[in-house]
């Protein structure tokens, strides 16, 4: 914003306009939360790095928590997500499979992260 008291935007300001939470549809809030959980879990699995096995960001305990939270959110809100539900479920299943592959001792079917909400992922 300009310092002259006008409401004209500063041409150098590239930040998006701020929206009140009350103006954001629930499906968008849920989808954003799911994408944040999905991204954070991928980071904790080391998937953002060239070699996940040697990633300094890999933390399977943290990944398990994030994947389980994502599974709960996606499962509980699937009926409200419409066209967003399938891609979020696919992303969740990809993370669950990546977790299984990354684990030195894989969980039994149905015992992996989030599987109490989604069922076994093979």
UniProtKB/TrEMBL annotation:
Superkingdom assignment: Bacteria
Protein name: Recombinase RecA
Chain spans, region Disordered: 1-22, 102-122
